Amino acid sequence: MTNNLIISGRGLCRYYRRGSETVKALDGVDIDVRAGESVCVLGPSGSGKTTLINLLSALDAPTAGTLTIDGRRVDGLAERELVNIRRGTLGYVFQQFHLIPTLTVAENVALPLLFLGRTADSGELTRVLEAVGLSERATHLPRELSGGQMQRVAIGRALIARPRVLIADEPTGNLDRQTGDAVFELFLNAVRRDGVALVLTTHNLTLAARCDRTVTLADGRVTPDA
Ligand SMILES: Nc1ncnc2c1ncn2[C@@H]1O[C@H](COP(=O)(O)OP(=O)(O)OP(=O)(O)O)[C@@H](O)[C@H]1O
Ligand SMILES: [Mg+2]
User: Fold this and answer.
1) 19-44 core/surface letters (b: 16 or more CB in 10 A; e: else)
2) Residue 24 sits in which domain range?
3) Cα of 204 from ligand 2 centre, angstroms
4) Residue of the nearest CA to atom 28 in ligand 1?
5) Which of 143, 164, 168, 219 counts the highest number of beta carbons within 10 A?
6) Residue 217 CA: which ligand 1 atom is closest?
7) pTM of the full predicted structure?
């Protein structure tokens, strides 16, 4: 195994049972992502992008196949161990921000450290707030922010624990084009600056083209890029 390989999935399958029917949401996907690399997952609605993202972020387990994240086999791990992988190795950002409405921007960003039994030293928090352009908004509540700012809080929260992998499912889906563009740039900065491995999905082909690579899904399988 190349030592900077952070994610390695082989033959990843995720089948859902719906009554007597089996939905093959993912059907034998191979994926490798290296440190300092950005990979964009593309494909039509229902092609399996979110299903794949949920496997790569250890939120869901594959029906079949093997998955290694940061050198650890995660397929077959118990939920308790997956939680540790999620907290220690992964940072994620979802389409609907998921901020805690009663916490300030700074508190939302620092939240993951609480789960790790740490508190943010002020330098760390300042660095992340600066990186996502929210230094001036540190004491604001989420409801006082625009959508783009909320998403930047979510990115800050994903970065605070210095994850090796950053995962995002349509992080710009709820943002206008210009705001989405700026948010996308923050992701790419994390790849350049911190050498994280980034996997995200988008329906925006212009944004996708700014990633190092794209992986296109159709009916749960990888299709050769055109
Ligand atoms: N919990 C579930 N139970 C049954 N089928 C599911 C479930 N979740 C997803 N699916 C099915 O799996 C397939 C892939 O869904 P997925 O959400 O991964 O697609 P997607 O590529 O993310 O689509 P979109 O672009 O609309 O977000 C779809 O056919 C979907 O209906
Ligand atoms: Mg989806």
Assistant:
1) eeeeebbbbebebbbbbbbbbbbbbe
2) 5-223
3) 13
4) 46
5) 168
6) 21
7) 0.91
Give the tokens for residue 178: 């210009």
Tokens representing residue 109 in the block: 């960003």
What CATH number is given to the structural domain containing 75?
A: 3.40.50.300
Question: How many distinct structural domains can be found in the chain?
Answer: 1
Atom 24, ligand 1: which residue's CA is nearest?
45
DSSP bridge partners of 67: 9
Structure tokens at 190: 């994390």
Pocket test for ligand 1, best of 12, 14, 15, 16 (most atoms within 8 A of CB): 16
CA of 53 to the centre of ligand 2 (A): 9
Tokens of 87: 């907290």
CA of 127 to the centre of ligand 2 (A): 31
Q: What length is written for the chain?
A: 226
> Does 16 contact ligand 1 (Cβ within 6 A)?
yes
Per-residue pLDDT of the chain (226 residues; tens, 9 = 90+): 456 899 999 999 999 998 999 999 999 999 999 999 999 999 999 999 999 999 999 989 999 999 999 889 999 888 888 888 888 889 989 888 889 999 999 999 999 998 888 888 878 899 899 988 999 999 999 999 999 999 999 999 998 988 999 999 999 888 888 888 888 998 999 899 889 999 999 999 999 999 999 999 999 999 986 6
Q: Is 28 in the pocket of ligand 1 (CB under 6 A)?
A: no
